[in-house]
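User: Show me a protein chain along with its predicted structure.
Assistant: Here is one chain, sequence first, then C-alpha cells.
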Amino acid sequence: MADRTAPARDSEQAITAALGRYRVMANVVGVLLILLVVVAVPLKYFADMPTAVTVLGTAHGWLYALFFLSAVDLALRARWSLKGTVLTVLAGTVPFLSFLAEHTVTRKMRAGERV
C-alpha cells in the first residue's frame, strides 16, 4: 500500500502549491478590484446604476478573504517576515498593487529569498 502522508507543511512541494494558490487569488482579486473602481463605481455615481458596485464589491470582499488566507498560508509555510506578510496582504486592497506584489513575491520565492 502506498504511503499517503501529506508533505511537510514547509516542504518545497507544499510551498510551491501555496504559491500557486496565492498567485491565482492575487490576480483574481486584482482584476475584481480594478473592475470595481474603473467600471462599477463610475456606473453608480454617473449613471445611477448601483448594482455593479453591489455585485463586484461583494465578490471582491469574499474573494479578498480567500486571498488573505492564501497569502497568510504561504507566509507561514515560507516563513516570511511580518513586514513582508502585512505588505503583501494589504496589496490586495489597492488597485494594480496586487499584480506588482504577486510578481515580486513570485520572483523572490523562486530565487529562494525571504519575503
